[in-house]
Write a structure and sequence with these properties.
single chain; globular; alpha+beta; 9-stranded antiparallel β-sheet; 358 residues
Length: 358
């Protein structure tokens, strides 16, 4: 009888270990909480003031969100602008998730406790990356609605990247509509969404697509815009962090002048084109002799992002990545782009040599 009990205990323990290995989240309830937190803004309308903290506290932003239309109004520095959905670029705790399916594939989650925030009971969720070099996110989720009231993001090295939290908050219907304004139309800056398979029909230049992507990252958005030449913006994400690849066809000075004159008049156009040309010449002078074997990427750092720019042929490329992602991953992306141009250059050289030799 004693041996039978021992065998039964071993079977039960083995089954629990097997279940835990098949379900890295530990409980089916926790992924459901993650789903609720990611999609709460589709069900709940709210308004309030939120702030964020990086190295220091920043000015708060007023938020009004209409769940029926999905639109969100942000008021900052006295001006209110409307976006078609909550934005992770703002201090909005509900905008933490960029791609729910990718989050569930690339992050493990567990509940770590409960607390009280703004008089409401919240459940604390911890999302940890399955791949190295990614951020860790802590969500303080309203127990009743599932809406995150506070989001804390830590970089790949464990240091604080950003804390977003509501300072004041209320649930209730909100009427948010986009005001017609060409100057502040988000499409002017973010472009128009285009399916990837239709890009070839929309632009008239060849794109450089990286051969390398960090594990778990995938293309989540493709946009086209036109400002002093055609642009394409490709957004890649693992669900929580992201980087953007922007490519622009470089126009000739005459083409730039025609484009700018139609937008801003002759005098302003001349000044604009002069600044663009000076920047291009400066980039060429600074890279003289350094890029004979491969293109040179230049880095520009901000408090929240690292940006890299390089020129491949007649295309200017900019890669902008959040600083909660390991920069080594972005350097690998840049290296894969520059190697495409190197292979192309070797092919052209080989073709010319073959033609010269007859």
């Amino acid at each position: 009888m004693r041996r039978a009990w021992i065998a039964l205990v071993l079977v039960l323990v083995g089954a629990s270990v097997l279940t835990a290995s098949l379900n890295p989240f530990g409980s089916d309830e926790v992924p459901d909480l993650v789903r609720r937190a990611a999609t709460a803004n589709r069900r709940v309308s709210y308004a309030g003031r939120a702030f964020w903290k990086g190295r220091w506290w920043r000015r708060s932003v007023s938020i009004r969100h209409d769940s029926s239309s999905g639109m969100t109004a942000y008021r900052h520095n006295g001006y209110e602008f409307v976006l078609p959905r909550p934005s992770s670029r703002m201090s909005d705790p509900s905008a933490w998730c960029l791609d729910l399916d990718a989050v569930l594939q690339n992050y493990r989650s567990r509940e770590t406790g409960t607390s009280v925030m703004l008089g409401r009971t919240t459940r604390t969720l911890l999302l940890e990356p399955l791949h190295p070099g990614r951020p860790t996110v802590t969500l303080h989720v309203d127990e009743l609605t599932g809406l995150p009231l506070k989001t804390v993001t830590r970089r790949y090295d464990g240091t604080l990247y950003r804390l977003c939290a509501f300072k004041t908050f209320e649930f209730g219907p909100q009427h948010v509509e986009r005001k017609p304004s060409r100057r502040h139309d988000h499409r002017r800056w973010y472009g128009t969404s285009v399916p990837p398979h239709k890009l070839a029909e929309t632009i008239d230049f060849d794109l450089y697509l990286p051969d390398y992507l960090p594990a778990g990252f995938r293309l989540t958005d493709t946009r086209v815009l036109n400002w002093m030449g055609p642009w394409v913006r490709l957004t890649y994400s693992d669900g929580i962090t992201t980087f953007e690849l922007t490519e622009q066809l470089l126009l000739t000075p005459a083409q730039l002048l025609d484009e700018a004159t139609g937008r801003m008049g002759e005098k302003k156009a001349e000044r604009m084109v002069r600044r663009i040309q000076e920047r291009r010449v400066d980039l060429l002078l600074r890279s003289d002799g350094a890029g004979k074997r491969r293109p040179i990427a230049r880095r520009r750092r901000s408090k929240t992002h690292d940006s890299y720019s390089l020129r491949l042929g007649r295309v200017e490329i900019k890669v902008s990545a959040r600083r909660d992602l390991d920069p080594k991953e972005i350097l690998r992306v840049l290296r894969s782009l520059s190697e495409i141009e190197a292979r192309k250059s070797r092919s052209v050289h080989y073709l010319r040599e073959s033609l010269r030799r007859g």
